[in-house]
Amino acid sequence: MSARRWRGLQALRRCARGGATVEMALVFPVLAAFLFGTFEIGWAMHCGATVRSAVEHAARPLLSNATTSAATIQAAAQADLNGVPVKNLQVTLTNENLSGGSVVLVSWQYTYDTMLPFVPTTAFRFDSSTIVPVD
């Protein structure tokens, strides 16, 4: 290798122009995916809390009327979910007898579809339940 070429390679190695651009091009996609993922997880948790609140609010009539149906509770909960992307909410009721009296187990489930850039849509299934005492 000639001395002239060798000096040119050394000069290129010392040159830092464009280094920040290359670093940003390498780091930005990972940082953006992390940031969008954090927002998406936060939104999914918010939706889960909103669904829980809507179902618990819709199940309150069970306290005074034990014949309230799951369809009635599901419709009332779905009506409370304005702005929340939950379309497939399913509510089930199970009557149980305990030593202290009767209770109704109100269970619900729904799927949440993630919407992240550059990532295929993934559906997460959320479910939970609450107990309502009836007499």
Task: Report on the architecture of this protein.
This protein is an alpha+beta fold. It has one domain. 47% of the residues lie in helices and 25% in strands. The chain is built from three helices and three strands, in the order H-H-H-E-E-E. The chain has helices at 3-14, 19-58, 70-80; strands at residues 90-98, 101-113, 123-134. Strands 1-2-3 form a three-stranded antiparallel sheet, covered by helices on one side. Helix 2 (19-58) packs across helix 3. The chain starts with a helix and ends with a strand. The mean pLDDT is 85.
List key phrases describing it.
alpha+beta; three-stranded antiparallel sheet; rod-shaped
Topology of helices and strands:
Elements: H1 3-14, H2 19-58, H3 70-80, E1 90-98, E2 101-113, E3 123-134
Antiparallel strand pairs: 1-2, 2-3
Span of the ends, CA to CA: 94 Å
Number of strands: 3
Number of domains: 1
Query: What is the share of helical residues?
Result: 40-55%
Instruction: Report Rg.
Output: 28 Å
Could you say which overall geometry the principal axes of the C-alpha atoms support? rod-shaped
The helix tally amounts to 3
Task: Please give a quick description of this structure.
With 135 residues, the protein is an alpha+beta fold. The protein has helices spanning 3-14, 19-58, 70-80; strands at residues 90-98, 101-113, 123-134. The protein has one domain (3-134).
